[in-house]
């Protein structure tokens, strides 16, 4: 089992505030790998990681035990620095 690795399965969905958690994780992972297009796509999202309210809904639904609410904070910090 791929514990603590997001595979974009969308089991964490739906997010109460409308964050596309799987897509944001994908853009983040691609961006970390040097993909500038993914960074550009993230910047155009109307709802992004900064809107996470840390309600834990996604954390409780993830079969890979990822704390997505914590990861959204990490992703937001990463993209704010870029």
Structure, explained:
- With 82 residues, this protein is mainly α.
- The chain is 48% helix and 0% strand.
- The mean pLDDT is 94.
Concise account of the structure shown:
The chain is mostly helical and 82 residues long. Helices cover 48% and strands 0% of the residues.
Entry keywords:
82 residues; 48% helix; mainly alpha
Radius of gyration: 12 Å
**Beta-strand share of residues:** under 5%
Run of helices and strands: HHHH
Number of DSSP E strands: 0
Average residue-wise pLDDT: 94
For the biggest sheet, the summary is: none
Low-confidence stretches: none
H/I helix tally: 4
Outline, from the CA principal axes?
globular
Report the helical percentage. Answer: 40-55%
Q: How widely separated are the two ends?
A: 32 Å
Task: Give the helix/strand class.
Answer: mainly alpha
